[in-house]
Amino acid sequence: MFPGFLAVLLLLAPLLWAQWPQFRGNPELTGVSPETLPPALKLAWTWEGGEIFESSPAIDSGTVYIGSGAGELLAIDLATGKTKWRRKVGGEFGESSAAVASGVVYIADLGGVLHAVNAADGKPLWTFKTQSEVKSSPVVSAGRVYIGSYDQTLYCLDARTGKPRWQYESTGPIHATPAIEGGVAYIAGCDEHLRGIDLATGKELFAVPVGSQVGSSPAIVGALAAFGTYGNQVLAVNLKSRKILWHFENPARQFPFYSSPAVASGKVVIGGRDKLVHCLDLKSGRELWSFATRARVDSSAAIAQAQVYIGSGDGRFYVLDLASGRKLWEFDAGAPLSSSPAIGNGRIVIASQDGRVFCFGR
């Protein structure tokens, strides 16, 4: 019996973790999926709602969850594109994206309220009110929810009840999503620092000055944190020495990096408001390639095996070769794409600013 049971587990393994349950796919915010998708995708379905989407989708247990500019939280069947449920949950949803854990969906609105709802039917479970707007996405880890707010505070809440465990007050609005790794929350924001916060106590462990405000969420890989800044740079911080390891700046075009990076195979892939997708060497910051789009790139890339998937303000969804930056495929969505793609169960989902959700597959 055991060999047969093991064989079944091996067959199911890719499906068991082929999810994208939060912004950037995992608590480390690396934007990487283990799945293998074809270079040329096929449109599986389009969901049309008519309201702006700046929020990025999450995928869990065959369902896509995404918040709209109308304040609706949507659950869409990944296989068919049919609406499972849609609920007016709170105020307008901006860039804060859903996180799904243990049958609960968490998402914050621009009014500063974090909502927890039942993933099966969207019924409300609890809310928590911050003191200002929220664009950060919630991250769930070990029974706790972490989220930043423009009230300059990083909150740690009990995932089941919404009751505060602790809160850390920074010196500026926290725009980006916290990265969670090794018992530490890493946050960057408008106070021009990357900070490490102890998950157990909420106490600051360190602060690294980065010289500019930050809207990009840090990706954590080993002892490095990579992110973009409003000072037109991409930085890598060594988390052991707590010093900037390298910085990259486009020598020809000075524009901010608002997109969050994806990191895989020793490469950092990030979109810029210089209308380019940049690929940098993780160790040195040397540019390996760049790809030109027709508008600024605020969408954050997803990487699956040897391909990069990213949207652009030019309304196109691109598939690029990770090694060379060569364009493999593109899709004209007809409206700007600032939402970031999510990958799960052999499909990839992205939303547009004219109220459509697109799903692609084989």
Explained architecture:
The structure is a single chain. This protein is mainly β. It has one domain (41-361): Methylamine Dehydrogenase, Chain H (7 Propeller). It is 4% helix and 45% strand. The chain has one helix at 2-16; strands at 32-33, 42-48, 58-60, 63-67, 72-77, 83-88, 99-101, 104-108, 113-118, 124-129, 139-141, 144-148, 153-158, 164-169, 179-181, 184-188, 193-198, 204-209, 219-221, 224-228, 233-238, 243-249, 262-264, 267-271, 276-281, 287-292, 302-304, 307-311, 316-321, 327-332, 342-344, 347-351, 356-361. The longest helix has 15 residues, at 2-16. It is globular and about 50 Å long.
Which quaternary structure do these chains form?
A: single chain
Strand order of the largest sheet: 1-27-28-29-30
Largest sheet: 5 strands, mixed
Give the overall form: globular
Radius of gyration computed on alpha carbons: 19 Å
Gap from first CA to last CA: 34 Å
Number of domains: 1
For the record, the CATH architecture stands as 7 Propeller
Please work out how many helical segments DSSP would assign: 1
Instruction: Tell me the structural class.
Output: mainly beta
